């Protein structure tokens, strides 16, 4: 099994010197809830630094928060929940799930439940099967595996427990057996699977690659949302397997650079601020 290295970055799309606004990627993020505010904003923050436009479809409470940080980011447009379809239509890729609630029970005080997330996720996946999708977090925990098959280009980002919830089978501890299972599921459901762990695996039907960047400081809440935003931004102008490989590698490299100055004592906001610096260095700007 091959290890992801800096060499794969040579194949990434880079904005041409003569490009114009809108030519370097448009991303829709569907996420956020009254209960979970920060998750989708971490994804938004990093994505807005990488693509020309981010359409952020969320609940009213998160729109107010996003407006308060808009002056610190590049362009994005807040969209009220329910109005996202027009923007998905013109987007290159869609990230769904960060900050969406999960579970069957209604959350007291917000009136939200995972059933709402499930209905939203099902509606959008079935409406836009031709789009590039990254399914993460809340949506990943409620999605039905059968919904993946009609999608043409999709990345899913489960940790081992989410993998069990989605596919109904536990990942083996032994790596060779784990890789066989991941390739089989990737083939059966026509998806790219990114399994996050001490060593991350990025798999499609034909092959799996291992990523060894990253450290124990990246166990903090929100680092997965940062990764989702980064990977989804890359997905806009790259094919899914490359976007998944590059995203997991770059995210870990940023964490490793933070580790040199802070040890494991950094958070997701630190990671979003470090990523543009890491990208600049890795891509030779």
Please give the structural blueprint.
Elements: E1 2-3, E2 26-30, H1 38-47, E3 53-58, H2 60-69, E4 76-80, H3 84-90, E5 93-96, H4 114-127, E6 132-135, H5 137-142, E7 153-156, H6 160-167, H7 175-188, E8 192-195, E9 200-203, E10 208-211, H8 223-235, H9 240-262, H10 268-283
Parallel strand pairs: 1-10, 2-3, 2-5, 3-4, 5-6, 6-7, 7-8
Antiparallel strand pairs: 8-9, 9-10
Helix pairs in contact: 1-8, 8-9, 9-10
Structure description:
The chain has 285 residues and is an alpha/beta fold. The protein has a single domain, classed as UDP-N-acetylmuramoyl-L-alanine:D-glutamate ligase. Helix content is 42%, strand content 15%. It is built from 10 helices and 10 strands. The protein has helices at residues 38-47, 60-69, 84-90, 114-127, 137-142, 160-167, 175-188, 223-235, 240-262, 268-283; strands spanning 2-3, 26-30, 53-58, 76-80, 93-96, 132-135, 153-156, 192-195, 200-203, 208-211. A 10-stranded mixed β-sheet has the order 1-10-9-8-7-6-5-2-3-4, with helices on both faces. Strand 6 (132-135), helix 5 and strand 7 (153-156) form a beta-alpha-beta unit. Helix 8 (223-235) runs antiparallel to helix 9 and helix 9 crosses helix 10 (268-283).
